[in-house]
Amino acid sequence: MQRTISTDVLVVGGGTAGFGAAYAAASQGARVRLVEGTSKIGGVMAFCPGMPWGGGFPIGRSIGGVFDTLTSMLCTMQPPLAEIRPSTLENFGAEVIYDHEAAVFAMFQMLEDVGVDIHLNTFAGSPLLLGHRIIGVDCYDRTGPLTIEPAMVIDCSGDGDISAKAGVPFALGDGRGNMMGVTLSFSMLGARWEQVFASDDPYFTKEATRGIAEGRLHPDLAKLYLMRGFHRDTVFCNSVHIRGVDGTDPQQVTKATQEGRRRCRQLAKFLIDCVPGFEQARMSELGPTIGVRETRKLEAVHRILARDLAAATKFADGIVCCDNPIDDVMRSDAAMTHHAIVAQGNYYTIPFQAMVPREIENLLFAGRLVCADPAAFASVRGMPQCMAMGEAAGIAATIAHDRRLTVQALDPAEIVAALSVRGVRGLGGEALSDYAPALER
Ligand SMILES: Cc1cc2nc3c(=O)[nH]c(=O)nc-3n(C[C@H](O)[C@H](O)[C@H](O)COP(=O)(O)OP(=O)(O)OC[C@H]3O[C@@H](n4cnc5c(N)ncnc54)[C@H](O)[C@@H]3O)c2cc1C
């Protein structure tokens, strides 16, 4: 039986960007439906359980907004289920480490509290267009087809299927089809931190070199990124990267996930056998699928360029601050980099117009499908920034719907002002440094 429902705002994808978008739009009074293909809110965050939220504290100050609300909620629980700490990686500032299940629960709860209608296990298949507007999105869940008729659509799917099918031009990866490596993560429980982290090399290069030389580790494991998890004596392993996988191709994702499992099991055994402190540890929280960093980047009114970020540009339509390094991971045959993009002590903002398509009048997008050149993308893609991009898109969609405006006709200054009212910091000419350091909370 064909089902049809209508909504003010349809958010496609319930990752960190979709969470921010749905929360913001619903808390501004819009009727919001969020469609998520899997069984969990979080996206990459749910596929890589325990991955820290990095980039939320440019020059040591919180970006504010929905990221702050969520972080504060977890940090002030009794007992606290998140904490803010310095990253062990070069050129990254502070990050939030959290109890994964508590964070996913809190995000769902926040969405429920503002009245978002959440459809898990529901896949958005294709848009129905009338001129330059999306008048329906054909979805599918276990009971069959479901058409959602939205006034506004926010594509937060990471891969941009709906936008691409609606005719929004895009670049795959770096424009030549080279996408960053994908990763399968896991944790080790019962690892003795004092021993594991006795040396200050965050990449365990000595041990990795030995493992590769002995044929026990894949050659792409020359740097093992192992970090303290939220709970004592847990270690989060964000190390197994697989090159050349197109995250929009389900078969490639399937194969890469099994290959990732093989390499993760190999690595866990190596840690137990060869790295002091892991003798009594065991593997846990192996990701249900690979985490995909990069696929389609949609074409927008404004393309974010690395040279503008390097100049610490604060765009007039900037919607969130950022000082993340160029976090590039194994595109084609390249290595991993964490080079700073902006001078230490400075930051840039991400412009709203990088989430606005040129033609479709009721579509916005947010998160890792933002319009950016490859180096800029490698900097802007952190989860706090994805939440904030979503928040800005949610506000903008609500304004467009209330006033019957096209997204191209929106006044960015109004969106920036609304974000500032919601506690997003450092926008509209105000320096981020005017605010109290986040680490003193
Ligand atoms: C391995 C890895 C490590 C990373 N490390 C860090 C880190 O340490 N710190 C940090 O801050 N950032 C990190 N990042 C970057 C960050 O996680 C991502 O950029 C961010 O999570 C992207 O969020 P998103 O919401 O845009 O997309 P996603 O998280 O990809 O979410 C998209 C969601 O949309 C759903 N979806 C897709 N298509 C459809 C459809 N057609 N219908 C319905 N649902 C759909 C998906 O199931 C998914 O839940 C990492 C990324 C990866 C992959």
Short description:
The chain has 441 residues and is of the alpha+beta class. It has twelve helices and 20 strands.
- Beginning-to-end CA distance, first to last residue: 53 Å
Major pleated sheet: 7 strands, mixed
Briefly note the structural class of the backbone.
alpha+beta
CATH topology of the largest domain: FAD/NAD(P)-binding domain
What count of structural domains? 2
CATH architecture type of the largest domain:
3-Layer(bba) Sandwich
CATH superfamily of the largest domain: FAD/NAD(P)-binding domain
Number of helices: 12
Number of strands: 20
What portion of residues is helical?
A: 25-40%
Q: Provide the residue-averaged pLDDT.
A: 94
Low-pLDDT windows of residues: none
Principal-axis shape equals: globular
Backbone CA Rg: 21 Å
Strand content: 15-25%
Heterogens: flavin-adenine dinucleotide
CATH class of the largest domain: Alpha Beta
List the helices and strands and how they pair.
Layout: E1 3-12, H1 16-27, E2 32-35, H2 44-47, E3 53-54, H3 65-75, E4 82-86, E5 94-98, H4 100-113, E6 117-119, E7 123-130, E8 133-141, E9 144-155, H5 161-165, E10 170-172, E11 182-189, H6 193-196, H7 205-213, E12 226-228, E13 234-242, H8 250-274, E14 282-284, E15 296-298, H9 306-310, E16 318-322, E17 326-329, E18 336-339, E19 348-351, E20 363-365, H10 374-380, H11 383-403, H12 412-421
Parallel strand pairs: 1-2, 1-9, 2-6, 9-20
Antiparallel strand pairs: 3-5, 4-5, 7-8, 8-9, 10-15, 11-13, 11-14, 12-13, 16-19, 17-18
Helix pairs in contact: 1-4, 1-11, 11-12
Bound molecules: flavin-adenine dinucleotide.
